[in-house]
Write a structure and sequence with these properties.
The complex is a heterotetramer of chains A (about 250), B (about 350), C (about 400) and D (about 450). Chain A is an alpha/beta fold and about 250 residues long. Helices cover about 40% and strands about 25% of the residues of chain A. Chain A folds into two domains: about 160 residues, P-loop containing nucleotide triphosphate hydrolases (Rossmann fold, 3-Layer(aba) Sandwich), CATH 3.40.50; about 70 residues, no CATH class. With about 350 residues, chain B is mostly helical. In chain B, a hairpin with a 5-residue loop joins strand 1 and strand 2. Chain D is about 35% helix and about 20% strand. Chain D is globular. Classes of the chains: A alpha/beta (about 250), B mainly alpha (about 350), C mainly alpha (about 400), D alpha/beta (about 450). Chains C and D meet through helix 3, helix 6, strand 4, strand 5 and strand 6 of C and helix 1, strand 1, helix 2, strand 3 and helix 3 of D. Strand 6 of chain C pairs antiparallel with strand 1 of chain D, so a sheet runs across the interface. Chain A: InterPro entries: AAA+_ATPase (IPR003593), ABC_AA/LPS_Transport (IPR051120), ABC_transporter-like_ATP-bd (IPR003439), BCA_ABC_TP_C (IPR032823), P-loop_NTPase (IPR027417).
Chain lengths: ~250, ~350, ~400, ~450
């Protein structure tokens, strides 16, 4: 039984069957990659997992509880954090504030009317945030306006924000898309480190095979809205069906 | 039945004014993303183009008529317009009589220039500024334009009557077999409706069938990409601004004979035109036109005795009530595009 | 002090000094000099500065922090005023219960309107709030003032009549709004040579309340809640995926700012027990938007400055007429005098709108951050003069610590 | 209620007790030596002219302001003296008021009660105005009248036509020279009967606020007394700029007279719309269709242009009146400003002179003394003929004009022609008339402030 169990999920947009009979099981503490050609339904699947879309059929269970019908913030509170394709951070706020918000969210829940307290007096939260910034090697940038960060730093900040909530499942949507090679390698190293050092499961949607094979220990291949195969990386590499459906095309 | 037809007709007429103003506004606001609080002022300037032309045509020389006296008992100064002196009394009188239709021609270059000057001189610096700044600067501009007009023309409304031939009303009911006096409608209001239809059709055709229009529509959808293609979209947007100003101005010129222009008529329409554009949906020209006509018709029906006795005060709030209902049932108005002015 | 850091404490102290000393600061010219026209230190205008300051500070909690632009906040001000006058009519002229009720009623209405309007964002939200406010105005102006059910007294404005019950009114209490017997109109005039200064009870009540709510606004700005509101403005998507529900945050901000507006409305009625429907019209809602932007959106002191700026023009410039102008320039030779008066004539008196419009444009063109930015630039310029180049680039947002 | 009779002095005492330790508070800015609010101490006395200077009524306000300035000139002995020469009371000498030179301050009402009160307060608190005059709407008049009552100064209303100003909202410190909706109805009715017959069916369009309602009530009452039938009364939103949807059903309703209870911009537009629909060219119930605008003003006539031809209405005053006072005023105003005065200008002019005269006769600026001097004061020579300031409700009673849009005006100023000068007896009503608040309406106590 995996921490995330997707059973028979189907989703239709008008005449387009985006997903059908998707079954997926993500094992605890694994790095599970979901790959597939463009239009295979990767993003749709991801959106079904985080509550942005509601599938027409099937079930999505996280740690034994259904996520279907819950709003994104509720699913996050269950322990799923999401990293976006283009980093989604609070651009108008400082790096430090960016880091404080998820920690407040973890401590106080989805809403709390803490209008009379002062941020500066929340020592515990600030300490946690500072610690996470240290770990992300961003402590020196804490007073910077986060919109002014480089793309790689924004990515680090976003991942740090997600990690600060100690999620059990981290979902990454093409985390290296549009990055320079050096930034990509840095991100790979960071994710490797995270999966080794932390008690955390990672599910990653990725296009870049270099990233996938550097990180994943389990891979699901999606094609035309259906899982083609789910296996270990070395088997995927040799699988002719996958080559035909995906690698052949994109190579 | 006849009462319903009458209110539909009236609604179409009201709606054509709303649609015209909203059309111009949505070109600027819904597509360039500029919150233009000076749009009402453009409408007002249009109307005052007609007033100005009327004044120009009535420029007169004075001669003293000893046989009559003015209110203080002094000999009366009689004014004769130069136009009448030059073209003869009859032809001159006809020209003066037709000053509003002539003002359409007079207003087009003026409004194009006003729009051009506004965009190049002011608005272009505000494309990347927050909406709040756009509101403040265009509101300031609207006040200035309004006060300038007030300084020269006063606060009192000024009549710009339609030509003699187009005054009065038609008994439309008789034409389709109703009793006399059942459906009476003013000729100029029918003219306004036809005029609005032509202008709206013209703008749509322009955007639909010309290459210029295609580029502009593409630019509305994705400004950056079109810019990357090496097309100077900024210049085209300037021209669009001019066109939007001209549409608003012409709406104003033709509106004058319906209700005499005054310097604050723009502000009276401002809020309403924003409501129309938003109800139509941001970034949608057909939406703005549709919403204009829809709100016009609903407003007409809400003002019937039947409606006001059923729900007291409905005529006061109908527009806003409908706006709320539409925005709550259709998140982006009638035909709005996703992501336009939603944050 | 009071849980504020040094910078905020300084700001609060400055605001406190400015409001408490306003009777002196606003009357800098001797009362019989030609410049006395520019004196703003009379009770009514001082009260207005402070009341509209409260209104704008509250509006800024919504608009400045969350970015949600409400175009209907005047409705809450109006509801506050009507509630207060009804308190006067039914119970007593004491201002405390009246103000309390206005805050509560405005809170309730803003809860309802905010709950509905916040289902949409951006311009759609603005138009929803505008629609609600315009409906309130239209109803208050006519429908709700019909003789059978007169809730608002329409065009004239709701006021206290001699035959109103006023259950707790006693002989010996002022026939005007009062604070436990101290009439809001009580004024002590201090004559100092050619100068005269007015100390008005109502003004000081407003000033004290303003300091309290300004302090609360600072607390909100510096609180985790305030940070969450700024997060709403910055990126709602990230907020939702961080486990935060943005809706109650925005609704709370909406209700708080609605209550500020209600408080302002209640105070207006307490200073002058008449509630006119026009204070709910869209132009009134637009005015507070302009005040906030003009002063500096998202800054603490900006909205107060913006409010003062606009009210000053409305009340001072509109009263400068040609004979005042002639009085000023009487020292010039006749032709010159007439010329100068003719040049200035369009900008003052009935032309005060024109001056205001021009200033709006100048401020937004040259000071993108509003009047506060003007202040910052001025300060930097002075510092630059004095201490050379050790100035940091003006930080846009203060660090959270 | 009995507790309402508490005097301002009583208030003062409790105020002082409550503020124990605080210096003696005074109401409004008056030094503690003053006997009443803003008692003039130097060589000048300040009057406050509160008129709309922005918004739709700015031109009307400007006209009022011109007249007020003219009045100040005449009081100070400048110019030709205007109506001082024709006024039946000879107390005014052209040397200011009680020997003090008259100065004035101006403010902008914006035609909003809030703004009007703000600017009136600023004149009282800052400039020390002893009297407020002007305004162009009843809402503003009632609001400012209430303020002046509280402040303890005199309010001389400008253009205000609603019954309430001297009806249920009447105040001891407030005075109205202008006529009112009831008088319009009473004056118009006989003329309407004569011109249109007693068998007419009227359709009312009414601005949906207080003034509109009182006017509709007055006109309906007086026309129904003639035997007219009221087909329908339709309320139109104040913010309307286009009345086509209200005009469209009129012809089909069986009515043959349209009554427009609109003022200012509303009236200009509704009348323009009605003419567009060709109502005046139609025949209904076998009679020529007619339009009535119960309250006319010169500026409305100018705004409505040719559309007013033949349309009946009533006015407080018209410059074409041929009495001595009117001629003196028109000459004086016309020579200075190059145009004849409007009826609101005449009201404001007369009000300033009446106030000044009352002060002279009372020998004091004390508002209570002024009230006493004005109450029941009979005069002539200000342009309206013989006039009475009735003591019971502070309403002026004088002849009312019924006017009609001229068919062939020779210039911009004679667009209205006088049809009838309705004698004052016909428009007089008892002070406790139900339209004026009935028996409960009271002026209250005079308030002298400090």
């Amino acid at each position: 039984m995996g921490i995330l169990e997707v059973k028979d999920v189907g989703k239709r947009f008008g005449g387009l069957q985006a997903l059908s009979n998707v079954n997926l099981s993500v094992k605890e503490n694994s790095v599970h990659a979901i790959i597939g050609p463009n239009g295979a339904g990767k993003s749709t699947l991801l959106n079904c997992l985080v509550g942005k879309l509601i599938p027409d059929s099937g079930s999505v269970m996280f740690d034994g509880q259904s996520v279907l019908g819950r709003a994104p913030f509720e699913i996050n509170q269950m322990g799923i954090s999401r990293v976006f394709q283009t980093p989604e951070i609070f651009g108008d706020l400082t790096v430090m504030e960016n880091m404080l918000i998820p920690i407040f969210a973890m401590r106080d829940g989805a809403f709390r009317m803490h209008a009379y307290e002062t941020v500066a007096n929340e020592r515990e939260v600030i300490e946690q945030a500072e610690q996470m910034l240290e770990e992300m090697n961003m402590a020196d940038k804490r007073h910077m306006h986060s919109a002014a960060l480089s793309r790689g730093d924004k990515r680090r900040l976003e991942i740090g924000m997600c990690l600060s909530q100690k999620p059990r499942l981290l979902l990454l949507d093409e985390p290296t898309a549009g990055m320079a090679r050096a930034d990509t390698n840095n991100t790979i190293d960071l994710l490797k480190q995270i999966s080794e050092e932390r008690d955390i499961t990672i599910a990653i949607i990725e296009h870049d095979m270099h990233v996938v094979f550097s990180l994943a220990n389990r891979i699901t291949v999606l094609a035309q809205g259906t899982p083609l195969v789910e296996d270990d990386p070395q088997n995927i590499r040799g699988n002719p069906k996958v080559r035909e459906a995906y690698l052949g095309e994109s190579a | 039945m006849d009462a319903i037809l009458l209110q539909i007709l009236n609604g179409l007429d009201k709606g054509s004014a709303y649609a015209l103003i909203a059309l111009g506004l949505t070109l600027i606001f819904g597509t360039l993303g500029v919150v233009n609080f000076a749009h009402g002022a453009l409408f007002m300037i249009g109307a005052f183009c007609a007033v100005t032309l009327q004044r120009i045509l009535n420029l007169s020389f004075e001669s003293v008529d000893e046989s009559q006296t003015d209110f203080l008992g002094n000999p009366l100064k009689v004014k004769t317009p130069y136009v009448e002196a030059w073209f003869g009394p009859e032809a001159g009188a006809v020209i003066i009589d037709w000053s509003v239709p002539l003002a359409v021609l007079f207003a087009i270059p003026i409004m194009l220039f006003v729009g051009y000057a506004m965009e190049r001189g002011l608005i272009k610096f505000f494309y990347k500024r927050p909406h709040a700044d756009q509101i403040l600067v265009t509101f300031g501009l609207a006040i200035v334009l309004q006060e300038v007009i007030k300084y020269f023309f006063g606060a009192n409304p000024i009549q710009t009557p339609p030509p003699e031939a187009l005054r009065g009303s038609l008994d439309l009911g008789v034409m389709v077999g109703f009793d006399p006096n059942a459906i009476i409608y003013p000729i100029w209001r029918l003219v306004y409706f036809v005029f609005a239809t032509v202008i709206i059709g013209g703008v749509f055709a322009f955007l639909q069938f010309t290459t210029f229009g295609m580029v502009v529509r593409a630019g509305m959808a994705d400004r950056e990409t079109v810019g990357l293609l090496g097309i100077n979209i900024d210049r085209r947007f300037t021209i669009m601004f001019g066109i939007a100003a001209a549409v608003a101005g012409l709406a104003g010129v033709m509106y004058g004979p319906l209700n005499p222009p005054n310097y604050h008529m723009g502000m009276d329409f401002l809020v309403l035109s924003f409501v129309v554009v938003v109800v139509g949906g941001m970034g949608s020209l057909p939406g703005a036109v549709l919403a204009g006509f829809l709100l016009g018709i609903l407003e007409s029906f809400a003002s019937t005795t039947w409606a006001t006795t059923t729900i007291p005060g409905i005529n006061q709030i109908i527009i806003y009530l409908v706006a709320i209902i539409i925005l709550l049932t259709r998140p982006r108005g009638l035909m709005g595009r996703k992501g336009v002015m939603e944050d | 002090m009071l849980g504020l850091d040094k910078k905020d404490t300084t700001l609060l102290i400055i605001v406190a000094l400015l409001t408490l000393l306003a009777p002196f600061l606003l009357n800098p010219f001797p009362s019989d000099s030609a410049m006395a026209q520019f004196n703003a230190g009379y009770p009514d205008l001082m009260q207005r500065f402070v009341i509209f300051g409260i209104f704008a500070v509250g509006f800024n909690i919504l608009f400045g922090l969350t970015g949600y632009l409400s175009f209907g906040h005047a409705a809450f001000l109006g509801i506050g005023s009507y509630s207060a006058v009804w308190m006067f009519k039914l119970f007593s002229y004491n201002v405390i219960p009246a103000i309390a009720l206005s805050v509560i009623m405005a809170g309730l209405f803003s809860l309802l309107i905010g709950f509905i309007s916040l289902r949409r964002s951006g311009i759609y939200f603005s138009i929803l709030t505008l629609a609600f406010a315009q409906m309130s105005f239209a109803l208050a102006y006519s429908v709700l003032s019909n003789p059978k059910f007169n809730l608002t007294n329409g065009e004239t404005g709701l006021q206290v009549y001699a035959d109103d019950p006023q259950m707790f009114h006693r002989d010996g209490l002022p026939d005007l709004p009062h604070l436990f017997g101290l009439s809001m109109r009580s004024t002590y005039t201090l004559d100092m040579g050619a100068w005269s200064f007015d100390f008005n009870a109502g003004y000081y009540l407003c000033a004290v309340i303003m300091m309290i709510v300004f302090y609360l606004a600072i607390r909100i700005f510096r609180s985790p809640f305030g940070m969450m509101l700024r997060a709403v403005k910055s990126n709602q998507q990230r907020m939702n995926y961080t486990g935060l529900n943005s809706r109650p945050y925005t609704l709370a901000a909406f209700v708080i700012s609605g209550m500020y507006a209600g408080l302002a409305g209640g105070l207006m009625a307490a200073m002058d027990p008449l509630a006119g429907a026009e204070r709910m019209q869209w132009t009134a809602s637009g005015e507070v938007v302009l005040m906030t932007i003009l002063g500096g959106t998202g800054t603490l002191i900006g909205p107060v400055l913006g409010a003062g700026f606009i009210k000053y023009f409305e009340n001072i410039f509109s009263k400068i007429n040609d004979s005042v102008l002639h009085g000023w320039f009487a020292f010039l030779p006749d032709g010159m005098e007439d010329f100068v008066v003719a040049v200035l004539h369009p900008f003052v008196g009935k032309g005060w709108h024109l001056t205001l419009g021009i200033l709006f444009m100048l401020v937004v063109i040259f000071l993108p951050g509003g009047l506060v930015e003007g202040g910052t630039r001025l300060r930097n310029w002075f510092r630059g003069k004095r201490s050379g180049a050790d100035d940091k680039p003006s930080g846009k947002t203060e660090p959270a610590e | 209620m009995s507790n309402k009779s508490v005097t301002r002095r009583g208030v003062l005492k409790t105020g002082a007790v409550a503020g124990a330790g605080v210096a003696l508070p005074t109401i409004f800015t008056a030094s503690s030596a003053s006997a009443f609010t803003n008692e003039p101490t130097g060589g000048t006395v300040t009057l406050g002219f509160n008129v709309p200077q922005t918004g739709p009524y700015a031109d009307e306000g400007n006209d009022e302001l011109l007249a007020q300035q003219l009045a100040v000139e005449h009081l100070n002995g400048e110019g030709d003296g205007g109506c001082l020469n024709t006024f039946t009371s000879k107390a005014l000498k052209g040397n200011g008021i009680l020997g003090k030179k008259v100065t004035f301050v101006t403010g902008d009402t914006q035609t909003k009660s809030d703004a009007a009160r703000a600017s009136a307060k600023s004149m009282i608190e800052k400039d020390g105005a002893i009297m407020i005059n002007g305004g162009s709407s009843s809402g503003v008049a009632v609001a400012v009248q209430g303020l002046c009552q509280e402040a303890g100064i005199i309010f001389m209303a400008g253009l205000t036509h609603a019954n309430d100003t001297t009806g249920k909202d009447r105040k001891k410190n407030g005075f109205r020279h202008f006529f009112n909706a009831y008088m319009s109805g009473a004056a118009l009715a006989p003329v309407l009967a004569k011109e249109m017959g007693a068998d007419r069916r009227a359709y009312h369009l009414t601005a949906d606020y207080n003034w509109g309602w009182t006017q509709e009530e007055s006109i309906v009452a007086s026309t129904e007394a003639l035997g007219w039938e009221t087909v329908n009364t339709v309320k139109t939103p104040l913010a309307s700029t286009d009345f086509s949807s209200y005009i469209a059903p009129v012809l089909n309703s069986g009515a043959d007279v349209l009554v427009l209870n609109h003022y200012g911009g509303n009236m200009v537009n509704s009348l323009t719309n009605a003419i567009q629909f060709g109502l005046l060219d139609k025949v209904a119930n076998g009679k020529d269709f007619k339009i009535v605008v119960p309250l006319y003003s010169e500026l409305m006539a100018a705004g409505a242009g040719e559309n007013i031809k033949g349309v009946l209405g009533s006015m407080n005053y018209n410059w074409q009146l041929e009495n001595e006072g009117s001629k003196a005023f028109v000459k004086s105003f016309g020579e200075k400003y190059g145009k004849p005065p409007s009826n609101s200008a005449q009201t404001c002019y007369a009000q300033v002179l009446l106030y000044a005269d009352a002060v002279e006769r009372a020998g004091s600026f004390n508002p209570c003394a002024v009230v006493e001097a004005l109450e029941g004061f009979e005069f002539d020579g200000l342009g309206n003929g013989k006039t009475l300031y009735r003591a019971e409700d502070h309403q002026c009673f004088k002849d009312v004009l019924v006017v009609r849009g001229a068919q062939n005006p020779t210039n911009a100023y004679d667009t209205l022609e006088i049809v009838e000068i309705t004698p004052v007896d016909q428009v007089t009503y008892p002070p406790d008339h139900p339209m004026f608040g009935g028996a409960e309406a009271t002026l209250g106590e005079c308030n002298e402030g400090a």
